Amino acid sequence: MSTFNLENIVRKNIWSLKAYSSARSEFQLYGKTDGAELTLLDANENPNDPAILDMDLQIRNLNRYPDPLQSDIKEILSEQKGIATDQIFVGNGSDEAIDLLYRIFCEPGKDSVITCPPTYGMYEVSAAINDVAVVEFPLTSDFSLDVHGILKSDAFAKAKLLWICSPNNPTGNALLKADLQHDWQAENYTKGGMMDMPYAPEFEQELKENKENLDRLIGGFNGIVVVDEAYQDFTENQSFIRRLDDYPNLVVLQTMSKAHGMAGARTGFAFASPEIIALFNKTKPPYNVNELSQKAVLKALQLTDQTDQQISEIKSNREMLSTLLEDLEYVEEVYPSEANFILAKVKDASAVYNYLKDQGIIIRNRSSQIPNTLRFTVGTTQECEVLMKTLKEY
Ligand SMILES: *Cc1c(COP(=O)(O)O)cnc(C)c1O
User: Fold this and answer.
1) Which of 275, 233, 279, 274 is nearest to 254 (CA)?
2) Percent of the chain with pLDDT over 70
3) What is this structure's pTM?
4) 230 CA to middle of ligand 1, Å?
5) What is the DSSP letter of 32?
6) Is 94 in the pocket of ligand 1 (CB under 6 A)?
7) CB 120 less than 6 A from any atom of ligand 1
8) Per-domain boundaries in the chain
């Protein structure tokens, strides 16, 4: 008789693992329907299909392994982001980069990392898979970083990774600004002012605080600071890519899944020093991004006008939706967003959520993270109109 016992041979952290619950796994949507009859405002995707034709992709040679270092993609990213190709890692979604950061930097069963919840769930799930401890420093009541608490903690002295999602999912606000001085100049310039416009006194204070925060949180940290910029395309703030030269321990994550409308292609990026990128390249599976995705992403990156136009439509829909939400009697608070979703506090989140679901509109209930909150992905103008009409009838 076999004495085999599965539980006995599985790593304890995997046996007790709580799986990541993706937006749509709750509906068992996959395999049964393509969701065509539902309005999907739950996963922060760009609702527009990039409309890349099969023939555009020129896919040949699927019998051959794909380029292990994705040179064509890095070439175009290098131009668009103003960064060297050896400072770019291309992954099977940014989720692969998240997992690799644990595998590269953290000893299982020994090391720890810092997260600032409520935030993206994968930092914690990946930690659990890699048997790495998580020390949480919750955001303050206005959803800002508890900088003081983090800096004075033991955890800050020891942790290997510090996760900062900015703009943050699900709160929508920026947690740190990469270069406020540049943001100020750019904003004044667009309004017709001069580049060297003097600062407003309250801005001067904000500028000083942000600089101190960066120097202490990133400059003063002995581990890696990861700034996850999945929603960077929806904010006016500068990307942390421009700070890589200042902080050798900085890693910036971006993705094709959100603004670029390519969630299905599973492709994300890490930007860092050439030394850190070399570690990613050593650790990743050799052919981590398949040929079909590489071709599609290359094409999508070239559609800059189309993407910019979609982003500006999403941003103006965001303002429209946020105004409407503020007017609804049962909505208690609408949080300002620099992303393609809006978080709102309502009187009874489950009731509103179930009502919308019954009407075929799927949003995300975030009440487990922040009581009575709902997260609405900003969809097409038409989707927003359907949502607004339905919300008014509640
Ligand atoms: C959606 C999202 C991602 C994207 O992950 P991919 O694996 O690239 O699809 C990463 N970080 C955050 C915070 C997100 O919300």
Assistant:
1) 233
2) 97
3) 0.95
4) 6
5) T
6) yes
7) yes
8) 20-49+305-392, 66-302
Average pLDDT, integer, range 218-238? 97
Q: What does CATH list as the number for 20-49+305-392?
A: 3.90.1150.10
Tokens, residue 160 = 């290997």
268 lines ligand 1 (CB under 6 A): yes
321, 322, 341: which is closest to 333 by C-alpha? 322
Is there an atom of ligand 1 within 6 Å of 132 CB?
Answer: no
Taking only the tens place, the pLDDT of each residue in 286-335 is: 999 999 999 999 999 999 999 999 999 999 999 999 999 999 999 999 99
CA distance 272 to 346: 40
Instruction: Please check the confidence at residue 87 and state whether its pLDDT lies above 60.
Output: yes
Is the torsion defined by CA of 173, 313, 342, 241 positive or negative?
negative
For ligand 1, whether the C-beta of 228 sits within 6 Å is: yes
Between CA 87 and CA 78 the distance in angstroms is 9
Q: What is the pLDDT of residues 64-78, one digit of tens each?
A: 999 999 999 999 999
Pocket test for ligand 1, best of 92, 169, 235, 343 (most atoms within 8 A of CB): 169
- End-to-end CA distance of the chain, in Å? 61
Q: Which helix (H) or strand (E) holds 135?
A: strand 133-136
Strand pairing category for 361-362 and 39-40: parallel
CATH-assigned architecture of domain 66-302: 3-Layer(aba) Sandwich (3.40)
- 269 within 8 A of 255, measured Cβ to Cβ: yes
